[in-house]
Structures are given as structure tokens and as C-alpha cells.
Write a structure and sequence with these properties.
Structural class: alpha/beta
Helix content: 10-25%
Strand content: 25-35%
Number of helices: 9
Distance between the termini: 86 Å
């Protein structure tokens, strides 16, 4: 009998499996990762790897997590605590949001899919034992699975925008609508970034990803942009038959957030909602022209830029002028000019670009002094500058063309993802409530 048992193949070798359910999902949808067929109470490592293409370059990001199988030889990532690796604790989506650039990748690499019509593909692998990043580069896995993570839903269409000098891409649900309209802008990364617009369209919006430099025939650099460019983009979106009348929303992050606030004040007639993600209460860093005249702006104090620490710059101290401005300074954005617009400020309390919480409070205090109550603030401890869509890879250090170096954006990975998990559904509800009213007339 003993010899017969020795000749039988082990249960581990026969049934070791790794699964992700559903295997195809939206980027902001949770999935269930499960490993089965292991020895009871054995230790395993689960790894995630994703690639992104930028031009001719392909970057790789990865994470890993250590788990202990239960008495049935199973690991459920959604229910069991990770005790080591890229994160710890019970984190159902930890393998996705904790991914960082793989060894040998450029410092400050950021995971952005430039083509939102294609999915983020995550390769998952299962290993016996507790392995680290170095060992995982060469070790053969015992089981694998793949997850497709989509920004653009199957019932969404993409429309290339070329209207006068305005460029970009609009994402909308298929069909005539009308849908609430939203303009989406990123910051100093430049080019066309479609991911948030595609994700918003997947939640029922006609969402226009609006680039404003370093894309096609737009100016190469973020300098001396004409405010009329953004006015024309608003007009174009409002004129589309599938967009609800009554005003559009604008979502912006960083420099894009400051632009969103400024544009809402300069052209209030058709802007009904703004979400400012770590923006500024005053126009800063670069000039914006209106009717051929340069608007005042707060300059970046390069002389206060400190030497980088481990090749990473911290520019927080270069913006102290923002907090010395007098109430009627020409650089301050006059939000009271758009009293019907609803403003939602998102701010990371640990961010290192500027003091976004203070920026938001100054804007809200100004609105209050002018008799307005059209504002709210979502402030997040341990969150940094870039708050995006859960559960794509988060980070705190990214290369910036603005200074031709890597910037410290602040926050912790857990602090950032908690802010994203909380703010993303609130952003969607806010935009649904305030973008477009079928009975309104402009």
C-alpha cells in the first residue's frame, strides 16, 4: 500500500490553479483572484505584470504578494491578508494598484495607456514559497492567469475631434443620447490622455478628452495658450446633438484643474460643474492669453528649487507666493463670476506639488464672501498629487517634462488608493447631478 501511494502523483502537481473572475472587466471593477490545489498552510507568492507601450518603447510594471494557503490549500486574495510583498493586509485589488516599474525601467515611469480603445492586460502568476522581485525575474510559475482591464466599455464609441484648432477625442455611449457632457483635462504630462474620458463614458457621459499642447499640430510646449481654445472646445461639445443642454462639466488634475477653474470663470455661460483635482486658487506657472492679452499668473520660483534627493525633485517650496496673494490680486481665479457652477475640490493632504488643501479653502472662502455656497471639498490624508481611477497602478514619483526631471508627488500608495476608491464614485455622482438639464436653455 505504501509503495502504491508513493507512485501516485501529488495533489499539488495535479490541481494547482490560478484564476481571476471575471477575466475581462472594467478598470474600476473589482475582480476575484483565487489560487487552489496547494498544500494546506503552505506559503505562496502571487505576481502581477503589465506592459504599456509609449511610441516604440514598451514599459513593464509589476507587483507581488505573499500569502499562506488555508487548510483546504486555497488562497482568496479578496478575503485573506497578504503578509509581505508590494502591500500588506486584505487588499482585494492590491496586485493591480501596487504595481511599480520593473527592475531596469526608467525612474519616474508612469502607467498611462495612451490608447484607451485597448485594454490593460495583467499577467498573473503563482509560485511556491516566498519570493522577492529579484527571484521572480527568472523563476518559472506553477500556474498562470490573465486579466483584461478596460477603460472603454464595449458599448462606448470613440470620435476623433478636429474642430477649427481644437483637437482631441470624444468618448460616448453608443446611441443618440442625450448624455451629460464632460471635458476632461490632464496636466503637464502633455499630449492626449484618454483613459479618464473613456472611463467616464463607460458610466454614461459624453466625455471629451481635451489635449492642449504636445499633440498633433497643437503647440509643443505649455506656454501662451489662448483661452479661446477652451471656449471653442466647450462650444463644440455643447453643440453636439447627443449632449444634454444646460451646461457641461470640466474635470482637471494639476495644471488641468487650475485651467478648469479659470475657464469656468472666463466662460461661465456653458460650464455647470467643475472637479478640481489638486488645482490652484490662482493661475500659476505659465501665461494664458485672452483676446490677445496675457492674463496675470504666478511664476514658478526656480531659484527655490532644491537639489534632487536620489534624482527626485520636490517643488513644494517653489510656490510660497501663492499664499501671499491679496484678495483682489489679478492672478486669483474669480470663481464668483460663475455662481451657478458647482465646484468639487479634491485635495491630497500629503501632496508635494503645492498645498492643494489650502488652495481649495482659499477658493471656497472667496466664493462664500461673494454669497455663494456652490462648493464642497474632499480632502484625503496620506494622499498625494495625482488622484486617478481605481485600480490602475498608483505611484508618487513621476517624470515631468515641465522640469525635465522626476517630481515627488507625495502621499503613500495606500493613502492614494484609498482616496481614489472614495473619490471616483463621488465624482461620477457629482457629474451626473450637475451636468446638463434637459429643460435648461443656454
Amino acid at each position: 500500500m505504501a509503495n502504491l501511494q508513493e507512485r501516485q502523483p501529488s495533489k499539488l502537481a495535479q490541481t494547482l490553479l490560478l484564476s481571476v473572475t471575471p477575466s475581462t472587466s472594467m478598470i474600476d471593477q473589482q475582480v476575484a483572484i483565487k489560487a487552489t490545489g496547494m498544500k494546506a498552510n503552505s506559503y505562496v507568492t502571487i505576481r502581477a505584470v503589465a506592459k504599456k507601450k509609449t511610441g516604440k518603447l514598451i514599459g513593464r510594471f509589476e507587483s507581488y504578494a505573499h500569502y499562506k494557503a488555508d487548510e483546504n490549500g486555497e488562497v482568496s486574495v479578496a478575503d485573506q491578508a497578504c503578509f509581505g510583498g508590494s502591500y500588506t493586509g486584505i487588499e482585494p485589488m492590491g496586485l493591480f494598484w501596487s504595481m511599480v516599474p520593473s527592475p531596469g525601467e526608467r525612474l519616474g515611469a508612469r502607467f498611462i495607456l495612451r490608447d484607451a480603445t485597448k485594454p490593460m492586460v495583467v499577467q498573473l502568476s503563482l509560485y511556491e514559497g516566498q519570493l522577492d522581485t529579484a527571484a521572480l525575474q527568472t523563476k518559472e510559475p506553477k500556474a498562470t492567469a490573465a486579466a483584461e482591464r478596460w477603460y472603454m466599455g464595449k458599448d462606448v464609441e470613440r470620435i476623433e475631434v478636429e474642430y477649427g484648432q481644437v483637437r482631441g477625442a470624444l468618448f460616448k455611449p453608443k446611441g443618440p443620447g442625450p448624455f451629460p457632457g464632460v471635458i476632461d483635462m490632464f496636466g503637464t504630462a502633455g499630449g492626449l490622455i484618454e483613459i479618464r474620458a473613456a472611463a467616464l463614458a463607460s458610466h454614461g457621459f459624453a466625455s471629451y478628452a481635451l489635449p492642449y499642447f504636445a499633440y498633433k499640430d497643437l503647440p509643443t510646449f505649455l506656454w501662451n495658450r489662448d483661452a479661446e481654445y477652451f471656449r471653442d472646445a466647450i462650444d463644440w461639445l455643447c453643440d453636439q446633438p447627443y449632449v444634454k443642454p444646460g451646461g457641461v462639466g470640466i474635470v482637471g488634475v494639476s495644471a488641468g484643474a487650475t485651467l478648469a477653474l479659470q475657464i469656468s470663470a472666463l466662460f461661465p455661460e456653458k460650464v455647470s460643474a467643475v472637479i478640481s483635482i489638486n488645482g490652484s486658487h490662482a493661475f500659476a506657472s505659465y501665461p494664458l492669453n485672452l483676446n490677445g492679452e496675457e492674463l496675470p499668473y504666478v511664476t514658478f520660483e526656480c531659484e527655490l528649487l532644491k537639489e534632487p534627493v536620489k534624482d527626485v525633485y520636490d517643488i513644494y517650496d517653489c510656490w510660497h507666493k501663492l499664499y501671499e496673494l491679496q484678495d483682489e490680486d489679478g492672478t486669483i481665479i474669480k470663481l464668483e463670476k460663475n455662481p451657478k457652477c458647482q465646484y468639487l475640490f479634491l485635495a491630497g493632504e500629503a501632496e508635494r506639488q503645492w498645498d492643494s488643501v489650502q488652495n481649495a479653502k482659499i477658493s471656497m472662502e472667496r466664493l462664500k464672501r461673494h454669497g455663494c455656497s456652490n462648493y464642497q471639498l474632499l480632502s484625503y490624508p496620506e494622499a498625494g498629487h495625482l488622484l486617478e481611477i481605481p485600480w490602475a497602478p498608483v505611484g508618487s514619483r513621476f517624470w515631468s517634462p515641465a522640469i525635465n526631471g522626476v517630481l515627488e508627488h507625495g502621499g503613500t500608495p495606500v493613502g492614494n488608493i484609498r482616496a481614489m476608491e472614495d473619490s471616483w464614485p463621488k465624482m461620477i455622482r457629482f457629474l451626473r447631478r450637475h451636468c446638463g438639464h434637459c429643460n435648461s436653455k443656454l
